[in-house]
Amino acid sequence: MASSTSFLCFLSLLSLLLPSISPSPTSITIPLSQFNTNPSSDLYQNLTHLASISLARAHHLKNPQKAPVFTTSVSSHSYGGYSISLSFGSPPQTIPFIVDTASNFVWFPCTTRYICKNCSVSDSNPPIIPSFIPKLSSSVKILGCLNPKCGWIHNNTDSQSRCPDCEPNSRNCTQICPPYLILYGLGSTGGIALVETLNFPGRKVQDFLVGCSLFSSHQPAGIAGFGRGLSSLPTQLGVKKFSYCLLSHKFDDTKKISSLVLDSESDSGKKTRDLSYTPLIKNPVVPGKHAFSVYYYVGLRQITVGGHKVKIPYKYLSPDSVGNGGTIIDSGTTFTYLSSNVFELVIKSFTGQMKNYKRAEDVEFQTGLRPCFNFSSQNSVAFPAVRFHFKGGAEMALPLENYFSVVGGVDAMCLTVVTDNVVEGASGGGGGPAIILGNYQMQNFYVEYDLRNERLGFRPQSCK
Ligand SMILES: *[C@@H]1O[C@H](CO)[C@@H](O)[C@H](O)[C@H]1NC(C)=O
Ligand SMILES: *[C@@H]1O[C@H](CO)[C@@H](O)[C@H](O)[C@H]1NC(C)=O
Ligand SMILES: *[C@@H]1O[C@H](CO)[C@@H](O)[C@H](O)[C@H]1NC(C)=O
Ligand SMILES: *[C@@H]1O[C@H](CO)[C@@H](O)[C@H](O)[C@H]1NC(C)=O
Ligand SMILES: *[C@@H]1O[C@H](CO)[C@@H](O)[C@H](O)[C@H]1NC(C)=O
């Protein structure tokens, strides 16, 4: 008798702890589209803007800021990314979210009076930002401070330190989870945490932790964190594998859509047909750099340009004990970032092999990209092929449009990879991943994050 009572207690406790997920097919497919609120008709501005946000994001990912009180790892950008729509609440409200594999938290703009500073180029023509309206939902709840999910946001697992207004050992304390403030490389957002129903066709996930942002700067849409942490979307849903195919960036506004697939099937070690796999590398554990534990590290072992090996010192290819070096893959970065030591080696290989073409220094100056070449007097141009070689033998041969882009009409092209002038190892500089693989380089690739088997799979595929 006693044992059956405690078993029942155990069951009801479990049902409190686990998100209640109704029986459902194991996979969910969500349309994935490009997110670009900042259409600029100026050719230079498009590339320049993408180059500068890619760099700002790289700085942020390499040097995650510690917010004074509230911490969570974050992303810095919005433009040049990809978005999905998610439906929260009862009845469901559907709003777009940027897909970000380098952060954990999921949040949406959450009031009709959402304040978004610097969310468009022209303040005279501010974008209409879709927001979630809590009072229209019957299933919304404000997250309580004692709820363990509050500890996911506020990194002190100890409820006594995050809930000072609660009596010790109180079970009925009504203090809400303290507001979050997320600092970005560029901008910030803040608000209060909710638990709300997340609706998919045929599946409802109750008590999903989501942030209700009241203000932001530089964040014209919510963000769905897909990183390796408790509060990320894949973790909260118990997803074992997710995959996407990234539509080509043509800087155009045509509403093309591909898919993001969330797969919860639990027992499959099977490889997906035609995918090349590379293991996900163990994250560096660095005190104070919690964000590094969120990223997806891969073992990039070599870059070849025109078949020639770029001699990259190993220290850049593998994270050391303080988290310097290594490669991460990030859906939220546009142009791939290479730390300057690596970049210069790659550039040297390019310019050496392309010395018969005229450098377009004016274009380099205007876009911040290099090298750029002026091909106006050329009938045909031979570009060196770029390949990434990963641990385990997987190779990624980049289509030309994934690393060279036309600017200035049709006669100049630039390498779409960014760097900064931070020299690794110099005091105060460096730190963090040396290479951030951005979404521009993954256009028309199908990419699978196989979390169960700790590997990343990819294949070239037309995503349209
Ligand atoms: C820049 O972006 C705008 C809007 O997205 C587009 O109409 C224009 O063609 C782009 N320019 C170039 C050269 O791609
Ligand atoms: C924000 O926008 C204002 C005016 O539009 C501008 O002066 C300011 O420099 C911008 N801030 C940032 C950080 O871009
Ligand atoms: C919470 O519980 C304590 C005793 O366990 C009781 O004294 C107190 O009144 C309760 N507070 C509320 C707000 O219900
Ligand atoms: C979070 O807490 C863990 C364990 O207490 C600690 O090791 C880590 O450094 C903390 N992270 C941050 C960002 O404070
Ligand atoms: C390319 O070079 C030609 C002359 O050789 C010049 O007229 C043109 O403006 C240059 N284009 C760019 C984008 O620099």
TrEMBL record:
Q: Which GO terms describe its biological process?
A: proteolysis
Q: Name one Pfam family in it.
A: TAXi_C
Keywords per UniProt: Aspartyl protease, Glycoprotein, Hydrolase, Protease, Signal
The record's listing under InterPro entries reads: Aspartic_peptidase_A1, Pepsin-like_plant, PEPTIDASE_A1, Peptidase_aspartic_dom_sf, Plant_Aspart_Prot_A1, TAXi_C, TAXi_N
Entry keyword annotation includes Signal: yes
Q: Which CDD domains match?
A: pepsin_A_like_plant (cd05476)
Q: Where is the Peptidase A1 domain?
A: 82-459
GO MF entry, a single one:
aspartic-type endopeptidase activity
**Entry's family note:** Belongs to the peptidase A1 family.
What is the designated name of this protein? Peptidase A1 domain-containing protein
For this protein's source organism, the top of the classification is: Eukaryota, Viridiplantae, Streptophyta, Embryophyta, Tracheophyta
